[in-house]
Amino acid sequence: MDSQGRGRADNMDPADQWVRNPNTGEYELRLNPSSPQSAVPRPRRGNPSAPGGQGGTRTAPGPRVPAPDTLPGPRRRRGEPPEPPPGRRRGRTKPKTGKAKKILLWTGGSMAFILIAVTGAGYLYLQHLENNVTTTDVGSAGKQGFSKDEAFNLLIIGTDKRTGKGNTGYGDAGSVGHADTNILLHVSKDRTNATALSIPRDLIVDIPDCPTKQPDGTTKVIPGTKNVRFNTSLGQDGRDPGCTMRTVKEVTGIAPDHFMMADFNAVKTLTTAVGGVDVCVGKPINDKESHLKLPKGVSKIEGEQALAFVRTRHSFGNAGDLDRIKVQQQFLGALARKMTSSDTLTDPGKLLDLAEAATKALTVDTGIGKVSTLKDMALELKKVPPKNIAFTTVPVRDNPAEKVVHATVVPLQPQAQQLFQTINADVSLTTVKQQQKKESAAVAARLKGSRSAASDVRVDIYNGGAPAGSAQQTLSWLQNEEGVLKSSQRGNASAPLDKTTLEYAPDQADQARKLADLMGLPASALKPGKSETNDQGLPAIVLTLGKDFKGAGVPLTAPTKAPTDVQKATADKQVCST
Fold first, then answer.
1. First vs last Cα of the chain: how many Å apart?
2. How far, rounded to the nearest angstrom, does the alpha carbon of residue 405 sit from its chain's CA centroid?
3. Helix 303-311 and helix 264-273, axial crossing angle in degrees, nearest 10
4. pTM over 0.90
5. Is residue 487 within 8 Å of residue 516, measured between CB atoms?
6. Which of 53, 108, 283, 330 could form a disulfide with 345 if both were Cys (CB 3.0 to 4.6 A apart)?
7. Which stretch of DSSP H or E encloses residue 491?
8. Phi/psi of residue 506, each to 5°?
9. What are phi and psi of 312, to 5 degrees?
10. Burial degree of 22 (CB within 10 A; 0-12, 13-18, 19+)
11. Which residues of the chain have pLDDT under 50?
12. Helix or strand or coil: residue 273?
């Protein structure tokens, strides 16, 4: 049966399978028990003495189905004489197809691993689906609940642990389950946009101390480690996903609110549930390591082939993890498009398959461990247009500590810090109307007055509490990147400062405004006062880097627009991997 035919067995319109529960005000999926359906557990026939009477249904433990008089029954086959169950009225009101389709859209699902169709099984299977979900208590690393009114950060973790049928040939033998794939998904407060930030597994980081909940209810603190791969934030020394969440905050300054973790089975079961996803490659692929074989162009993949696609790295780009990240982003975009397509959203069978696959594939924190909460999160994400879901990666460079073989990477500054600030400030990497208004307001609020040319700015730089070496780094950045050649580094300030300041004489206001623009200093940082005499005997403004200083070229003000040099792709467009 083709995709449009699923759910239409026995001449039944899928729209008629969604009916309104007057007790809750929500629409629920009711299936004809005689129709062929997916492998998701279905209601089974009762007996005359069982609750519900002849032809009634029994479900997994959970709320009872409302009385027959309140819910219309399924449409009978054409030509069959009406045989309503005892107590059920013959007549019924047919839901409007347009409204029913809207319900399907709302409950459909949107972005990979958010797994979205948890309401597909709806009222009848809530308890069953809830039993599928595995939860982990991450304590203070995450939030205890989910808010529909705030921006949220979801850490999506793909582990390389060989769990599940048919997965013994994948991953590292005996792996404890490291954080192999990591995506920090930020969803904006106004739901106009989202940013999916990939964090390379080979990124060198400092992992902080991590309190973990033990099976006996006690808490064990796992000591942190310095200068190690990001992927060891999970599994190593007994670290749980909360340790990975804490590491993300340590590296980016962005605090994840919740996490979702999936193993190899998630890719296989989700792609199978939606009937495969379309991916594109710019050349024929025959990878001996992953056993992926694809012709040039667009192919539909699912199951084992989909898993091979996201695990392949030797056939793409420079055969490294960074190029594999691009392939995984392409795959996630393709899965998001398929999960939100009409082919999926108007097919109750697929929605149920997706609900079952999603809840079985996931481990989540206890803050979102209920299916109803996962549904709420899914529906919030569903509001984001695919064209405004941007995929990007932490800007990195080769680890300078490795002289021969470059196996790891470190953040590329100031680009990485600028990107982290952009996400933390809830600024989209795509253009949306609200953002344009915000930028216009920011321009209007800028320091008023004329500016000197960068080449005319004379400044002495002091370190007043910033990390060691910050004054020299700022000097190099100003001279090499911004053309402020009349600048000097004067060592440590006489006293530490909490906030960065820029002091200037009245006749140097133009220079101060120009330097504030270049460095992204807030108006509060500018201090009219006195200048000092520089090494050339000329008056110079005084820049003192305080404890709030974040790096050369990193603005201290919250950004109002995204950096122009960020490499990104959006979920609405198909990209061919090469």
1. 35
2. 32
3. 130
4. no
5. no
6. 108
7. strand 486-492
8. -55, -40
9. -75, 135
10. exposed
11. 1-17, 27, 32-81, 83-124, 436-437, 439-446
12. helix
